[in-house]
Amino acid sequence: MPLIGYGTYQTPPGITERCVADALKVGYRSIDTAQCYGNEHQVGLACSKSGIPREDLFITTKLWACHGYADTLRSIDGSLRKLGMDYIDLLLIHEPVGDVYEIYRAMECACRDGRLRAIGVSNFLNERYLDLINHCKIIPAVNQVETHVFRQQTELRALERQIGTAPESWSPLACGENNIFRNQVLMRIAEKHGRSVSQIALRFLVQQGIIVIPKSTKQEHMKENLAILDFELEPEDMADMEKLDAGRSLFGWW
User: Fold this and answer.
1) d(Cα 114, Cα 180) in Å, to the nearest integer?
2) Which of 37, 40, 49, 75 is surrounded by the most beta carbons within 10 Å?
3) Exposure pattern of 50-63 as b/e (b: 16+ CB <10 Å)?
4) Do residues 170 and 122 make contact, with C-beta atoms less than 8 angstroms apart?
5) Rounded distance, CA 202 to CA 217, Å?
């Protein structure tokens, strides 16, 4: 799974196909969607029209409103139909609701039969994550949670590292909240490296092995967000940014 993907949260279906096509054009190969976004079909159209071989793409989607084993299997088939694909690279439980054990057991079944290449979770914080670990056969490949400079999830990431789950960030740029683009620490480090604040905030995560899925509807920002692998933050930069962690959600969701 690429460390940098393209997110489609709150991208209206009417512009999703164009946005995903642009993202693929500038070099993204990992695309993140979800059933509740209502744009899986448009993501699939953009991928199929791109001319990029399916095996070169990494498609993530997330379950929504599933309650148990049977409806999860139906939901997986529904996503495959909407995407127009034979398999999904990564399927996540979007949030810890419903009979999580049975939902995940159905995902394990679909993983074994090839409809899914990997499975994981989203918004599973410490206790819920550990609880699932004690009841599953396949360790979640990914846990996608709110992670950015203001909420760094240090304790959760330490648990994931021990168990073998990759951390993934949603809202890696904090959705622009907390005045992130005018933050004095980030601006100083950005000036030092000749980069944008967005690139510094994303590099901080990627440099720690955290997968990021920034979203933009503009090609220039897509390119900017992707261009973060050709420089490295220094230890003192990382230390200064670690001090920005407030340890709580900016959105009050999870």
Assistant:
1) 41
2) 40
3) beeeeeebbbbbbb
4) yes
5) 17
Rounded distance between C-alpha atoms, residue 208 and residue 140, angstroms: 19
For residue 198, give the nearest of 210, 219, 178, 182 by alpha carbon.
Answer: 182
In the DSSP assignment, the letter for residue 113 is: T
For residue 67, name the pLDDT band (cuts at 50, 70, 90).
very high
- Angstrom CA distances, 7 to 76, 108, 145, 215, stand at 20, 25, 13, 5
Cα–Cα–Cα angle for 90, 93, 99, rounded to 5 degrees: 140
Interhelix angle for 126-133 vs 154-163, to 10°? 10
**123: buried, middle or exposed (CB in 10 Å: 19+, 13-18, 0-12)?**
buried
Mean pLDDT of 211-219: 97
How far, rounded to the nearest angstrom, does the alpha carbon of residue 36 sit from its chain's CA centroid?
15
Cut 0.70: pTM above it: yes
CATH number for 6-179+210-217: choose from 1.10.3720.10, 3.20.20.100, 3.40.50.2300, 3.30.470.30: 3.20.20.100
Active-site residue list: 37
